[in-house]
Amino acid sequence: MTVPKTFRRYTLDEFIAYLRTYIGRVKFPEVHVHGTWRPTIAMYRSKADPSFYIQAMYRTHTQVNGWSDIAQHATIDPDGYIWDGRPLTVAPASATGFNDSDYDGVHPFMFEMIGNFDVGCERLEGAQLRTAVGLTRALADMFGSRIVFHREMTSAKTCPGSGIDKAEFVAAVAAYRTEQTEVKTEVDVPMTAEEKKQFTALQATVEAQAKRIATLEGERKMAVPSWAKTAVDAAVCAKLIDTPDGRSEDFYSFVTIMHRKGLF
Ligand SMILES: [Zn+2]
Q1: What is the pLDDT of residue 3?
Q2: How far, in Å, from the CA of 39 to the mean position of ligand 1?
Q3: In the sheet where 30-35 sits, what is the strand order?
């Protein structure tokens, strides 16, 4: 039986202040960036208790994986808060062969971001993105940590998610203004009943248009062209379409235009 553990939730500024107390006590040559994949942001939002999935990860890591503690030093939730994890003086369970687990006070800092950030699924944005970038920048500034994505340490994973571009993330960390805390961020607002109605209507429109275009085109079917891939992935993820392949060029143009207009 695992002894229950209490996890504390910090704002980015609070967590940076906490990290600062470790300067000289521990060295983080690298910061390892992960995305949970499961739980997804939607799963996280479905629970009233914000610590539900932090505890669930703790139980899985200790009881199923048999680790001494939760794998990561920190978890960034979809609201941009940081939950603490295993002690900062202990090496993480980040990636086999890359954890530097020899108790010499030198090891990577590991954080998880809750969400499925593969292409076409959920997006790292708003407060969560700001905290991920701000935390990474703080680690780089205080400990000289080099940014490493989980997928760079294994070919078996897309982690932190194929939708997160490493070069873009690194550029955002470099551009992050450490003195300015009130950066404008997009905030995700749940759909209202009226918006849900509009969304359902949109779904119907997409299918109706698809049928009409297919008829007009005499069923000239093709695979998803590369220029439409992002939009089509997003449409699949949003459950607007379930058979992305074998549609006409006009259908792919239509989906791309709708996606560019931010309709899904
Ligand atoms: Zn990972």
Answers
A1: 64
A2: 12
A3: 9-10, 82-84, 74-76, 109-113, 30-35, 146-149
Residue 189: per-residue pLDDT = 63
What pLDDT does residue 183 have? 47
Q: Which residues surround ligand 1, an ion (CB under 5 A)?
A: 34, 150, 159
How far apart, in whole angstroms, are the C-alpha atoms of residue 70 and residue 60? 8
Determine the Cα–Cα distance for residues 253 and 225; give it in Å rounded to an integer: 10
3-class DSSP assignment, residue 201:
helix
pLDDT at res. 46: 97
**Rounded CA separation 197/174 (Å):** 42
Say if CB 220 and CB 248 are below 8 A apart.
yes
Give pLDDT < 50 ranges for the chain: 180-185
Distance 108 CA to ligand 1 centre (A): 13
Q: Cα–Cα distance between 166 and 146 in angstroms, integer?
A: 12
User: What global pTM score does this model have?
Assistant: 0.69
Class of domain 9-175: alpha beta
Show me where the domains of the chain are located: 9-175, 193-259
Contacts of 73 (CB under 8 A, 6+ apart): 84, 85, 86, 88, 92, 109, 110, 111
Dist. CA 38–CA 151, nearest whole Å: 16
Residue entry with tokens 């076409």 = 120
User: By C-alpha distance, which of 203, 212, 209 is closest to 242?
Assistant: 203
110 CA distance to ligand 1 middle (Å): 9
pLDDT digits (tens, 9 = 90+) for 79-123: 999 999 999 999 999 999 999 999 899 999 999 999 999 999 999
Taking a C-beta distance cutoff of 8 angstroms, is the pair 34, 72 a contact? yes
Residue 94 Cα, ligand 1 centroid: separation in angstroms? 7
